Amino acid sequence: MERRPIWYLVGLIAVILAFAVSTTLRGFYITLGSFLTLSILSFLYKDNIFYKAAEHLFVGVSAGYWMVMGFWSVLIPNLIGKLHPPLVRPFVPAIADQPPSYWYFIPAVLGLMLLWRLSPKWPWISRWALAFIVGTTAGLNFIRYMASDLLGQINSTMVPLVVIEGGALDTLTSMSNIVIFLGVFCGLIYFFFSKEHKGAFGVGSRIGIWILMVTFGAGFGYTVMARISLLVGRFQFLLGDWLGILS
Amino acid sequence: MANGERPTFLERVQAIDRRIIFLFVALAVSLPLVFHVIFPEKISPIVSSMFDRIESLPEGSRVLISFDYSPSTVPEVQPMVDAVVRHCAARKQKLYLMALWATGQNITDETIHRVIEKEFPEYRYGEDYLNLGYKSGNQGLINVILTDMKKMYTTDVHGTAIDSIPMMAQIRNLRNFDIIFTFGGGFPGTKEWVLFAGDPGKIPVASGVTAVQAPLLYPYYPSQLLGLMGGIKGAAEYEYELIRRYPRFANVAHPGIDMMGPQAVAHLVIMLFIVIGNIAYFAGRRREAKRQGTP
Amino acid sequence: MRRQVPLIITLIVGAVLIIAAFIPHHPFGRLGENFSLYFDIIAVFAFLLGGGNLVRIHGARFLRGVRTSVQEAKKGGGFWPLKFLVEFPFFAFGGLEDKRGRDWFFSLITLAGFFAMLYAGLFKIGNPDGWQGNVTQPGGLFQEFYQSMFNPLQATMYALLAFFVASASYRAFRAKTLEATILLATAFIILLGRTPAGTYATDWLPSWLDFFHIPNLANWIMAVPNLAGQRAIMIGISLGVIAMSLRVILGVERTYLGADEK
Q1: CB count, 10 Å around CB of A245?
Q2: In the Cβ-directed half-sphere of A38, how many Cα atoms lie within 13 Å?
């Protein structure tokens, strides 16, 4: 049996001591939150057991969290409360006297079929529920993506390229509208893969790449901004809520 | 480091240990926080259009706020939510709070506790604000409540029958709201609200999202999306404008403005790293070319 | 039956929802609404499925690990239960790995977190309003666990990315080509324009050059060229979604049904 260095045990004892002190000063839950935060951050130095433990805890806690939320928010009021309202009287008395609605057997049966996936026997039963989910998603998306993301966006691109305001040319708006129109057009040319990008088509494709590069540059800038904000949030927690050194 | 030569300074710079970069990022974020570095802000047009819409809504307007995010994006999104809730409450609008994300329900409770109950004690539950909580279904949920709210929301989050809540008396579906605010950072979020509620129901939708998502949503503005707050910058702009118009909010927490100090320093540090990385790279390439040119 | 019925379900549900958009009257309007409603409820079973799957995988891994450690303890004679207990902390640090080489002890942590959350939430432990109260009410154990475990763990996982973005930018962000230079220049303008640094850097510009004031330039980039690029991508994606939806509804695309199993 391979034994890990004694330093792991020393580290663990140090953590227990620090935890005991911090709990007394700041309270158990804040200390626990800080400990887990530091455990995750410790990955920056190198992979270690604290990070691994925190990572595994996260997986378990997340799954438990979603199950609880699904149970109390939907399963009880929107399924059991519809099928047999008196059953939910101890939890949601307000809907316990409503008449039952037996149409809800359909989602109940399909839901149970979905859970059949956990069974080693006949896992194909879950396909029926999956087919319902996939069919609904496809039906909903087909219409809405066509209306809002295809036609809606094309419509928004059809803007006047020469804008006259108060009898004079509005240079900035005109330029912006030209960039939008050409940008969308050339961007689409770049995504058109069934024709070789040569000649005039190639020029359009090249402009499309430039526009996309600007888009990705903007995306990168905003991504950096987002990630830094999240880190600031954690530092605010560690330095403020836990250590109490922020004003 | 060719032919077993000792690495030059630039080569060493290029191969710097990533933990040194990590250390600089940590310092860039923590020091401005400790020294409380803050800067003035100016509202941009895309945020301003949101702010102005709330200003123009009459007292008692019905505002739906959807909490579609989780702790992973709370530092970015929560300042926006707090500012908008404050703004709506200051304008005496009716707030309907709901969540497409399960985690949104916890965050709604915290927001009520921290902002509404503490800063607006006159706001009464069920008459001025309502917590509808979380329901599953993502875009399917929006599709259902676009025509009938009560099909999914039979009670509020506390188990009170929806028909007995005064605020719900005039609400049949999403079309009865004057504006929908969606705060989020992924799926389902602003895109789904625009596609499944805003566009088909002709309901004004405004949004506050993480900076990662913001650039993706610009194509919807202004015809399909009323306004957009992107990341902590958007939040800071909104907070600043709120304080400018309502000086009484100068004394409440404004995390958006507070976070812009570390944000600015961290951006500069990252830019500096990119510049150094490029200098080292090009200098190294030049040296390599020279070496190959002169045997 | 195993493949035909799911294909028919998909076809009917998808087609009804599409028809309902064009004929929002009886029976399509009502049917479309109900299908969406059922979808919302079935979605919650996915959460249960996720939890069940987690218990199945981690439970099996943990039991396998315990079995292996008991076998180890039995080796070499002596009172094996005592040996097992004494050596247990060492197993905890990954000293003994299961047959597949994974740290099985961490599966116990996953299961502990899962059941702790279930216990606190399903029984509404410590909830100020008892069984009838809101499960996420401040004061309840579920909310405390959420605040002290779920919240810091998830938030920090994402915050780690700040460090990796910085490191990756340093190593990989090179202005090697014209395209890369455009990307880099845009990123710089946005990074500067979205902080007060940009304001101070070009505050001295005369008003007729206002467009080049970095925050204004950043706003313009976001609202014009970024919009154009994103719109091109959005139109492309929408075409993909529309085509894929049709393929799914018509039964051309069947990968979601998985492999043919007996």
Answers
A1: 11
A2: 13
Nearest-angstrom CA–CA distance, A208 and A227 = 28
Mutation target to probe the C interface, by most C beta carbons within 10 A, among A133, A148, A155, A175 is: A133
Integer Cα distance of A107 and A104 in angstroms: 6
Burial of B16 (0-12, 13-18, 19+ CB in 10 A): middle
Q: Could you tell me the two tokens for C176?
A: 């090697």
Cis amide linkage into residue B188, ω under 30° from 0: yes
Residue B95 pairs in a beta bridge with B63, B129
Using an 8 Å Cβ cutoff, are C261 and A213 in contact? no
Inspect the interface and report whether the beta carbons of C195 and B147 lie closer than 8 Å. no
0.90 cut: is pTM over it?
yes
Pairing of strands A168-169, B129-134: unpaired
- CA B292 to chain CA mean position, Å: 52
C-chain residues within 8 Å CB-CB of A36? 148-149, 152-153, 156
**Which chains lie within 8 Å of chain A at 3 or more CB pairs, if any?**
B, C
CB of C237 closer than 8 Å to CB of C253: no
From chain C, the residues in CB contact with B29 under 8 A are 162
Q: Model confidence over C94-148: pLDDT tens digits?
A: 555 555 556 788 899 999 999 999 999 999 999 999 999 999 998 899 999 999 9
Residue A69 and residue C135 in contact, taking contact as beta carbons nearer than 8 Å:
yes
**Chain-chain contact of B140 with C39 (C-beta, under 8 angstroms):** yes
CB contact under 8 A, B105 and A70: no
Torsion of CA A186, A192, A196, A198, to 10 degrees: 0
Task: Measure CB to CB from residue C231 to each of B144, B219, B267 and give the nearest one.
Answer: B219
Give the end-to-end CA distance of chain C in Å, rounded to a whole number: 12
Q: State residue A133 phi and psi, 5-degree precision.
A: -65, -45
Alpha helices in A27-99 (DSSP H): 28-41, 49-70, 81-83
Q: Output phi, psi for B147, to 5 deg.
A: -110, -30
Question: Counting Cβ atoms within 10 Å, is residue A64 exposed (0-12), middle (13-18) or buried (19+)?
Answer: buried
CA gap A164, A179 in Å, rounded: 17
Dump pLDDT digits (tens) for A137-175: 999 999 999 999 999 999 999 999 999 988 899 999 999
Helix (H, G, I), strand (E, B) or coil at B1: coil
Q: Collapse the DSSP code of B97 into the 3-class scheme (helix H, G, I; strand E, B; otherwise coil) and give the result.
A: strand
Residue A116: DSSP 8-state? G
Q: Which residues pair with B97 in a beta bridge?
A: B65, B131
Q: DSSP states of B144-194 as a string?
A: HHTT-GGGT-SB-TTS-BGGG-GGGTT-SSGGG-SEEEEEESSSSSHHHHI
3-state class (DSSP) for residue A165: strand
Cα–Cα distance measured from residue C201 to residue C212, given in angstroms and rounded to the nearest whole number = 11
- Assess contact for C119 and C67: CB atoms under 8 A: no
Q: How many residues does chain C have?
A: 262
Residue A160 Cα to chain centre, angstroms: 37
Q: Give the whole-angstrom CA distance, residue A63 versus residue B271.
A: 39
Instruction: List Cα–Cα distances, B128 to A35, B24, B87, B104, C245, in angstroms.
Output: 39, 47, 14, 20, 42
Average predicted confidence (pLDDT) for chain B: 93
How far is the first Cα of chain B from the last one, in angstroms, to the nearest whole number?
Answer: 16
Contact C80, C70 (CB under 8 A): yes
> In sequence order, what are the beta bridge partners of B66?
B98, B182
